[in-house]
Design brief:
elongated, mainly alpha, two-stranded antiparallel sheet, 180 residues
Length: 180
Amino acid sequence: MASRSVNTDISIVGAKEALRELNKIDKVARRQVTKDYASIVETVISDARALTPDRPPLSGMGYRWNPGNRGDVFPYNDAKSDRSMKAFVSGKKPRQYGAYTSDLAVFGIRWSNSAALVSEMSGRGPVPTIKGRQMVDALNRRYGTPGRFLWKAYLRHKDEVERRVEMLIKDVMRKVQKGI
């Protein structure tokens, strides 16, 4: 008799709602969820910090650049880049703005440094200028394709992170169902 296997994806529905409800029931327990998640992804964040370059990824990234007076993008600063990588847990309701929907993620890692984001994701979308294509080509040669640091670190720890987050969500659901 031949053996059969079934492949399944685990989808947990209602995590945002459960987090909002937990926040109403017990704010301390809700904050503990954020702390627990931060400890789960600490290995990913420390790995990503180790992957980011100590010096500007490209020579021009060491100089000030302020496109259209919207705030400085460069110079690249490794210490600022590393400090700006933080875990987050969101119970916000998703909001629709035309074709764009915000606040979809429940768990994630936010990297709020513009110079680091340019280094991490340049080349993911269309690159309209010749200089931009040259920059993307240089980044690709040195560090690989977009998702150069944080995404690679996540992929190394993906199975463990997903397993532990699933356990965390089940714990949240249990607490909400019990009403703590």
